[in-house]
Structure formats: structure tokens, C-alpha cells
Amino acid sequence: MRIFTDEIINAVCLHIGRRKGISPTEVEVQLSWDEEYGFTAEVWVEGRSQYLVEANLLEAIERYMLEQYQMRVFRSQITLDADDEFWADIAN
């Protein structure tokens, strides 16, 4: 299964919203990839910015897959990649 940029962003918004006790619509996310840091996301909540590393993104995707697709997946099953857009491949 493959999810694309919009769903990855939704996963991060839902994850951060739950962790901070706010609505996911109050979270803004910008995904990026860098040779030094790999996949990251800058997240804005209530006017404050924070960076998430790849492990945080994978955690958000795990939770999203369980809640939205009723699929229990583990980090080892998720591969992030990017070209013109970002995507996550989820192995069965």
C-alpha cells in the first residue's frame, strides 16, 4: 500500500493534535528531505515551530494506518521516499 503527501501530512496533524490536546486543523506541517537529516517535518502549533525527525513521522504513520485503515503496521514495514512529492510505502 502507498500513501502520498496529503495523507502523511494528515497523519502528522492527527498525531500532533492528539499529543498536544488540540484539533488537528490547528497544526500546520511542511515535509522535507535532506541528505544530512533524512526525512523531517517542520510543524507549527499555536505560533510555535518544532521539527520532527523520521522516527516521529513513522510513529505518526503507524497510528494513522491503525485509525484510518484498521491496519496494524510497524516502522520496519514503512519506507519513506520522495520525488516531486512524498510518499510512504507500507509492506504487508
Topology:
Elements: E1 2-4, H1 5-20, E2 27-34, E3 38-45, E4 48-52, H2 54-69, E5 78-82, E6 86-90
Antiparallel strand pairs: 1-6, 2-3, 3-4, 5-6
Notes on the protein architecture:
The protein has 92 residues and is an alpha+beta fold. The chain has one domain. Helix content is 35%, strand content 37%. It has two helices and six strands, in the order βαβββαββ. The strands form two sheets. A three-stranded antiparallel β-sheet has the order 1-6-5. Strands 2-3-4 form a three-stranded antiparallel β-sheet. Strand 2 and strand 3 (38-45) form a beta hairpin. Helix 1 (5-20) crosses helix 2 (54-69). The longest helix has 16 residues, at 5-20. The radius of gyration is 12 Å and the shape is globular. Pfam families: DUF2653. InterPro entries: Uncharacterised_YxcD (IPR020516).
* Structural category: alpha+beta
Principal-axes shape call: globular
Distance between the termini: 8 Å
Number of strands: 6
- The averaged pLDDT comes out at 96
How many domains would you count in the coordinates? 1
Largest sheet: 3 strands, antiparallel
How large a portion of the residues is in β-strands, by DSSP E? 35-45%
SSE string, helix = H, strand = E? EHEEEHEE
The main sheet orders its strands as 1-6-5
Helix content: 25-40%
Q: How would you concisely characterize the structure shown here?
A:
Pfam families: DUF2653 (PF10850). The chain has 92 residues and is α+β, with helices and mostly antiparallel strands.
